[in-house]
Amino acid sequence: MRLILYITTLLCACSCYAQEYAFPPNFQFGVATAAYQVEGGWNSSGKGENIWDRLTHTRSELITDGSNGDIACDTYNKAIEDVQLLKSLGVDFYRFSFSWSRILPTGTANKINPDGIRYYNEMIDELLANGIKPFATMYHWDLPQPLQELGGWPNSVIADLFADYANVLYENFGDRIKDWITFNEVGVFCGGGYESASMAPAYNGAGFGVYLCGHTVLRAHGKAYRLYESKYKASQGGRVGITIDSGWYEPASESPVDIEAAETAIQMGFGWFAHPIFSTDGDYPPVMKQRIAQKSAEEGFSRSRLPEFTSEEIAEIRGSSDFFGLNHYTTNRCTIIPDGWGTPPSQWTDAGALCSQDADWEPSASSWLKVVPWGFRKLLVWIKNEYNNPEVVVTENGFSDRGELRDCRRINYYNSYLEQLLKAIHEDGCNVSGYTAWSFMDNFEWMRGFTERFGLYYVDFNDPNRPRTPKMSYYVYKNILATKRVDWKYSPDSFDECEF
Ligand code: GBE
């Protein structure tokens, strides 16, 4: 009897090992938020106005529920108590972003707001006192309004002003912050802000403003990286990276045309930023330069709508990231665009790809987000092959619903995506060193206001105290962090089990 038991245990140990990989011992886990989405305190103690303050206050009809981030999760007043919530979750790091306007009310570094420095100092000290590493993003979409008045990111001057801002951050916080992200999802805020008008400053500059924005941001990133390298790295010993967002782009069929459309889409959506920084040659992807130049000529422009880098800029930007920050949520299938589709100039007619999602993919509360776990693994393998297996930190991944506490669909999302991540690490040899759940708590979901919720904590936005309540997924994530494994059977006592 004992022998049989022994043999079955052994067998199980072997076969379970094959399916249930563990995260490597030094793998880092965290949760993320962004300043405008959680802080509130929009005009407290000297903070200046930014483009999201302006957009939500003057064009509230663009926000699904007409809401804004004036108070949001009130993290401006609750940062210290929130650290206890992070501690009980067991994260290695907390990814948050600095509000540029809270530090520099006018956007320029000649005037620093002491309360901004105080606020972040207190939060950083509290995190460190509780054994949690601060992982800081410098820019998560909230440009100071005065810089927008100068044209915002399409104005190349903003690159230098960003480097000045980065300098203030390194100088004040770099003694304690060792992990920096310059920008969150460049392609997304340039696209939303200057192509499709779906984010602040909601300007429609399709096929033009969007590339000017991206160009300034890449230059700004290069400057901020080199500044750290030359002035701070030796004494502070941290690292600086960038976060790029990408879905996976699957060809709609096996036809060579669709395969090419999907590859062009990923090069021009993701390679747009990844290629200048992570490829051996630097600069924009060749296919991107070639296509936009050709389309521009056909459309009667006297030069390409995609700006050119000088050779000094190419060299400054190439290799300017100590890790690859990746935000990933979902997948699309791409085919070639039919003749006459869309209105040029635009990013998508430039790319010549038409991407959409399958009707039977599991939905979320966000129209763009479908549950497609295998796309995550394919994207990680693509990055490995394309950019010589860089160290990847997954800086966001998560699922939206309407805020239910027994959030089985979010648990399903995390378990399935993390399983694919484990396969990418163990079977494909992808060099992934960390993972971040979006989000720590429900927050202001940009144009969707408070209607789409991504939190591990539920936040009651009708209660002035903004109480946070752990959802079922909070316990599941906590268990993953504690055991370094995905366990579909794990169910916290306080909830009825989910059926998967
Ligand atoms: C991240 O972006 C952001 O970094 C984070 O701030 C945000 O809260 C989180 O995702 C969840 O969205 O008309 O509905 O199709 C879609 C993820 C806009 C990438 C949403 C812009 C997803 C890119 C507009 N998308 N976002 S529409």
In short:
The chain is 43% helix and 14% strand.
Task: Summarize the structure in words.
It contains 17 helices and 15 strands. Mean pLDDT is 96; it is low at 1-18. The chain is globular and about 65 Å long. Strands 1-2-3-4-5-7-12-13 form an eight-stranded parallel barrel, surrounded by five helices. Strands 6-8-9 form a three-stranded mixed beta sheet. With 500 residues, the chain is α/β, with parallel strands linked by helices. The chain starts with a helix and ends in a 17-residue tail after the last helix. Helix content is 43%, strand content 14%. Strand 10 (362-363) and strand 11 (370-371) form a beta hairpin. It has a single domain (23-483), classed as Alpha-Beta Barrel (TIM Barrel). It has helices at residues 2-19, 35-38, 51-58, 75-89, 100-103, 114-129, 145-149, 158-173, 186-194, 209-236, 256-278, 286-298, 311-317, 347-351, 373-386, 408-426, 472-483, and strands spanning 28-32, 93-97, 133-139, 179-184, 239-245, 248-251, 324-327, 331-336, 353-356, 362-363, 370-371, 392-396, 432-438, 457-459, 468-470. Ligand GBE is lined by residues 34, 37, 184-185, 188, 192, 198, 245, 327, 329, 367-368, 396, 438, 445, 454. Ligand GBE binds at residues 34, 37, 184-185, 188, 192, 198, 245, 327, 329, 367-368, 396, 438, 445, 454.
Map the helices and strands.
Elements: H1 2-19, E1 28-32, H2 35-38, H3 51-58, H4 75-89, E2 93-97, H5 100-103, H6 114-129, E3 133-139, H7 145-149, H8 158-173, E4 179-184, H9 186-194, H10 209-236, E5 239-245, E6 248-251, H11 256-278, H12 286-298, H13 311-317, E7 324-327, E8 331-336, H14 347-351, E9 353-356, E10 362-363, E11 370-371, H15 373-386, E12 392-396, H16 408-426, E13 432-438, E14 457-459, E15 468-470, H17 472-483
Parallel strand pairs: 1-2, 1-13, 2-3, 3-4, 4-5, 5-7, 6-8, 7-12, 12-13
Antiparallel strand pairs: 8-9, 10-11, 14-15
Helix pairs in contact: 4-6, 8-10, 9-10, 15-16, 16-17
Bound molecules: ligand GBE.
Residues 34, 37, 184-185, 188, 192, 198, 245, 327, 329, 367-368, 396, 438, 445, 454 line the site of ligand GBE.
